Amino acid sequence: MKTKIDFFKTFFAPIILIVAFASCSSDDNITNPNNPNPNPTGNSGVAHTYNITVDGQSYSGTVENVSDGEGENGAVQASSLAINEDGVTHVTFTLKNNDITAQGLFDFPIGESTNLPFSGDAQIYFTFPTDSGLNYSSDSGTANLTIREQVFVLGIPIFSELTIEFNGTFTYRDNNDDLQSTTASGTIKINLPPGY
Question: Do 50 and 103 touch, CB atoms closer than 8 A?
């Protein structure tokens, strides 16, 4: 019968070694997220942007690029990740401040990141809390993704610089909780955190 100590040795010890190795790596500018790159890319730390049109109404702005904590206008660290696995690219993103909350997830064959049809494998959600507060969810249409830069830890991407362009029909619940649909299009750009 395995004891708790045996379980710790088998399961947690390798994880601790990996974390220790990452924090002691000689290539800290890429492998240690606590020690940013001394030569960051041109868009590292640059504010994230969005430009979205919903039923003819335009919403555009910037979200401060913060690496932790809370920034200007309620900005929190954006997350953006792209991983290739078994012939499929998995992409997720979140962008949030007091004016916008946007999220997306995509699964597509590697190298086929254009004209992705909205479906169970490609979704975008967004809301503008200070305006209508309605929650929009992609229903039909397409999205194009561009993965511009990535930061890796031990060969695993932890940050990805993304551009998401989309156009389609989005559903939402109105004030009477009735399901409605509208057209929406736009571009969301998520940059690497400061120092990367």
Answer: no
Q: Where are the beta strands (DSSP E) in 7-134?
A: 48-54, 57-63, 79-85, 88-96, 101-109, 116-117, 122-127
Encode pLDDT of 93-131 as tens digits. Answer: 999 999 999 999 999 999 999 999 998 889 999 999 988
121: three-class secondary structure by DSSP: coil
Torsion 93-69-150-83 (CA) sign = negative
Give the position of tokens 């932790």: 68
- Give the span between the Cα atoms of 38 and 163, in whole angstroms: 24
Contacts of 105 (CB under 8 A, 6+ apart): 90, 91, 92, 122, 123
Q: Record the tokens describing residue 90, joined without a space.
A: 């998995």
Contact 154, 21 (CB under 8 A): yes
Look at the block and give the residue holding tokens 């399901």.
179
Instruction: Write the pLDDT tens digit of every residue in 16-55.
Output: 333 333 333 333 333 344 445 556 666 888 999 999 999 9
* Two tokens, residue 196: 């990367």
Helix (H) or strand (E) holding 180: strand 179-190
Query: How far apart are the C-alpha atoms of 130 and 13, rounded to whole Å?
Result: 47
